[in-house]
Structure prediction request, 283 residues.
Amino acid sequence: MKKPVRSAKAASAVDEAVDWASTAIQSGRPVDAERVLRDVLAKTPRSPNALQALGRALLAQQRPRDAIEPLEAALRHGPNPVIETNLGIAFEQSGRTADAVTCLQRAIDRQPPFEHAFAELGGLLLSLKRQSEAEAVLKRGLAVAPNSVEMAVLLGGIYLARADRNDAKLLFARTLVNAPSDPRALYGMGAALMLEGDFARAAQRLQQAAAQDPTDVQTRLSLGTCLLELRRWDEGLTALRIAIQLMPQAYPAALKILVASGRGRFWLKPSAAAGLLRPAARF
Prediction:
């Protein structure tokens, strides 16, 4: 009878160590988590929870290649969508995209569904330009987790890319009900309104997005476009200049917006536009 007691105590100690390590990872201390987990695994090398947590700690340290081995070892104890999702991330970050897709496809078919797997696979498929497959995965994911902002933003981006403003507006409107301050959803709604030429309402949404994420260059460029279309010349120039200050490489895009604007296309030469924008740029 004594052995089961000791075994139970040992299992409890492992669980406590893994819980501590998980908290350490979440609080930005993955190196400390790794140290504790390796001590645990030296004594209980087959613990799936410790192996999974070690994989997460290594991913948090941007060591995806090192994370693959413990995550694969954890999966040998049985299918698990959380472990498969983390392994898929490790594969993707290691450049093994085909393995990542396969792993994440397995993860989204598990029960109960794990919503993060759908978001990861949808994003990966988009990066591979497999748009139709990404759309199908994201729609499945949103059926499982209808309040997921991440998946809604990814799916909304697909709608915007094909100028489907009605579906984009509907999706971003629903998303903003659940996440009214999310800058990605605010930008998406602004972009959808731009597609239908409603520059006044688009500018309002883009201004809100810029307030939430002042460093987003695309938001500033789109805001500048709207303000110039509304003949709010000085405000539009300011938005474009801020975009260039944030990222000097945005200068060509800002110049194109300025020259193509309602006022610019009639009288503004490219050289004159350059003079308006260059003082704010850092070359």
